[in-house]
Every structure is written in structure tokens, then in C-alpha cells.
Amino acid sequence: MALAKGEWHKLPLTLSELCLSSVLRCGQSFRWRASNPGEWTCALKGRILTLRQDDSHLHYRAIFPVAATAPRKDDTVELIRDYFNLDINLTKLYERWSAADTHFLKKAVRFVGIRMLRQDPWENLVSFICSSNNNISRISQMVDKLCTTFGPRLGEVDGHAYHDFPSPGELMGDGTEQSLRDLGFGYRAKYISTTARIVAQERLVGWLDGLRKVDYRDAHEALLELSGVGPKVADCVCLMSLDKAEAVPVDTHVWQIAQRDYGFGRGKHKSLTKATYEAIGDHFRKLWGQEAGWAHSVLFAADLKAFADVIIEEAKTEEVEKTTAKRTAARKVKTGNIREEPEEGGEGVKLDPASVDDDKKNGVEVGTVVERRVVRKAKRSLKLEVREGEDENVSLELEGATTLADRVKRRRRC
DNA sequence: ACGGGTCCTAGCGC
DNA sequence: AGCGCTAGGACCC
Predict the structure, then answer these.
(1) Is A332 known to be catalytic?
(2) Looking at the record, which segments are called Disordered (predicted)?
(3) Which end of chain A is more exposed for a tag (fewer CB within 10 A), N or C?
(4) Through-space separation of residue A191 CA and nucleotide C12 C1' in angstroms
């Protein structure tokens, strides 16, 4: 099919309002491709959209299939404003969350511009049905196969074919489950085909999009009736496409964060039961306010292993803290005199008991911001020198290099 | 062997 | 007895 290659346009946008590479990689959407250095491309609502960013602007280019009918009006700028939720002032929200929560402040200084997308609900729903027991890399591959196999092909750019996301109707056929199994979806194949059938046949047209207009609790409850949709996936959809900024999806990562940094994991909330799940959401809503889900995604991104390069980058560019400071820190860790035990639900920094055990087993001091193997890998990818037997000092150097005065997270080999 | 859960069921307490 | 809640296992690659 012929393509109408569009021109580049731009709209003013600061980095504190949007950090494109973070937002497109932090596990909200799984379809954006790094099409060129600094460039991201995705098939979105009938066009192939490419984005890049500089200090002051977001640049965009849309490529449409040439339709037999009259040329459509190019609504790409409206699409972008909607998709990135650009009417929401993120900078102000960061200020509010930081004022309410010192732990948020500490994390957020290194992870600015992380905002919630306003995705298509159906794509969002199916993508997160895929997310169970899974990782971003494989989820992305699965979503890509789903689009390639079932979605309408828009065309080819730079030798790469782009397909739009398939509709419920395109996924409700009898062969869908088997096809998805053949594509490696595992037990999620049935969830997706069943959910597609429910949405296409047992719900009114526009039902899913219509959940944008009902309140959070009702939308959440409605989503739970679908197959493969539990509380966590329902919250992801509420937050990422149904305008429920207060929804806080609690997955294993957020559960870890809640235990490590917000005092959960003891007493009444020892394990992640339904009650604990709701208590965590309630705690964050009370702490951060109405847009708690937006705030949660900043901390979630800050903990993503894939974002370790942000920390590495800082290590490269900032001055490394002096050796004496390292030794002092290491000594403090060793004597254990910097341990803090916040009350449940209270704020403060606490050592994660699980990682303490692990690290002791491995003969490594407690508390780390990045796992050693992740650091090593990231260093390698940045062509930093990694000498044999030296890498265990990396995380210490990293911490020293950051402005973050988070002493608890330093570590050294015994 | 692990990874961004969901579903199902048995067992417990009230 | 019956319901609500929780823990544990299976599920695909």
C-alpha cells in the first residue's frame, strides 16, 4: 500500500513535562520501537507515528496509508496531546508529591518527566493480560506478534512493517486461542480469546471506552468480569487508559517498594492478600492524593532494572565521591548503626529483610541500588572498563556519584 | 529457573 | 451450615 509520508512537526514541551524515552520504555505501552537513535515509532490509530524530543520540543511525523477515499484531516497533534495526557501539568504534580513524601522526592530527582499515557483501553487491557508471570521483553514480543498476526497492516517504513493493534472483533475468531498458543502465549491465549469474545459479543459497542465515564470502583469491578483480569490488571487498565489517576496497581515490584520504603510487610500486612493490596493503594492515595497512580509509576520506573543505565550515566558524568566517604559509609553499614525501622505505613528508609538474607548468604553487605550483574552489564554496554573482580565496587561508586544521600543503599564486599 | 498474575480449591474461623 | 478470607498450586514459554 502506498504511504503518504508526512513532514516533521513540533510542539513545545519541556523535559520535566515528558521524558519520552522513560515513558515509552517503562512498561505502560509495549509497542514503541526504537526506530533510530532518539526516535520512537509506533502504529497508532491508522498511522505510523514517529517521535523524537529535544530540550524544548516534541517532534513528530505521521505517515498514513493513502486511502482510496478523500484524504482525511490530519489530527495527529490532537492524538499526541490526548495520548500523552498533555493537559495535565506534571511538574506541578511532582512538586506536590515531593512536598508530601520525602522518599518520593529523593527518587524523583533522577526520574523526571514520567507521566501516565492515555492509551487505547482495549490495547491496554490485552497487553496487561499478557503481563502475568512475564517480563517487559517477552510482553513486547508477544504484543508485536499479536499485532503482526491479527492487526491491520498500515505499511512499511525503513524496511519495517507496522500493524495497528487488532480490535476485539479481530481476536474473537474460533482459531484465535490455538493461534496464540502457537505464537507462544501459553495460558494467556485462552484469557485473550475469551475476553475478546466477551467484549465483542456480550457487551455493547463502546462499553470498554465507556468505563472512562464511570467512577474508579465501578470500572474496576466491571473489568474483573473479564477473563484473565484480576485486581492488578484491572488497576493497570483503570490507570493507564480509563482516566482513573487514583488507581494504584500493586504488582510484585510495588509490593517490594511498599515493604522496603513504606513499612509494609509486617504485622497485619505480612503477605500480599486482597486486604493488603487495598491497604497499599489506600496508603498511597492518602499520601500522594488523587493522582496517586501517576506518582506510583514514577517510583515503579525508578526501580526498573532496565533503567539502571540512568544511574550508570550519572556515574559517568558526575564527580565520584571521595574514597574516605566510601569507607565511612561502608563502616557504618558494617556496624549496622544506620538501620532505620519505620512504623508500618510510615515513611522512612528500611532495609529489605529478604535482600539482607540474600546478601549475607552471598557474603555481600546489605542494601544496593542496582544488582551487581545489572551494573556490570550496563557498564559494558556503555563501554566502561570492567576489570575482573572489581565490579562489586561499582554500586558503591555509583551511589557516591549521585546526589542522592541515601546512605543505607551503599554496600561493599566483606 | 525466573518472571510486572489469575484462577481454582481446600482449609480455617466466625 | 454457610460465607468470607487466606494460602498454595497450576498454568506457558
Answers:
(1) no
(2) 337-361
(3) N
(4) 12
